[in-house]
Amino acid sequence: DNQIVINCLNNAIEAHKNWLNTLKEIAQTEKVKILQTDYKKCGLGRFYYAFKPLNPKVTGLWNGLEGKHKAFHSYGTKMLSAVNSGHTGELRQIYEEAETCSNELISDFHKLIQIIDALTKENIRIFE
User: Fold this and answer.
1) DSSP 3-state helix, strand, coil percentages of the chain (rounded to 5)?
2) Residue 52: which residues within 8 A CB-CB, separation 6 or more?
3) How far out from the chain centre does Cα 128 lie?
4) Relative to the CA of 122, which of 23, 47, 76, 89 has its CA 20 to 30 Å away?
């Protein structure tokens, strides 16, 4: 159902903002915090790999999420590695790159929501 996808995307936006805030805290405090670094295990990752929309107005953007989402979570791995190895001079740069990636990802989430909303108004389901 389209609304379930929209709800998941809205949840993903909030979850990724929170994740980025945690990354920022790590960069500022130079202390390790709990952070999901496996892009397949976060809420969006589990949802993303469980469902594949079929509507061509959605598939291109949907398929493009994987690389950006994988890259986004990789910044967590880089950040934790830099803290653990004492390379704290890298933290700000890692955070800034993650923030840029996050903005692109969230922009894609918003675009998907707009497309799915429009399709819903036309009574078109994205999984058919």
Assistant:
1) 75, 0, 25
2) 62
3) 25
4) 47
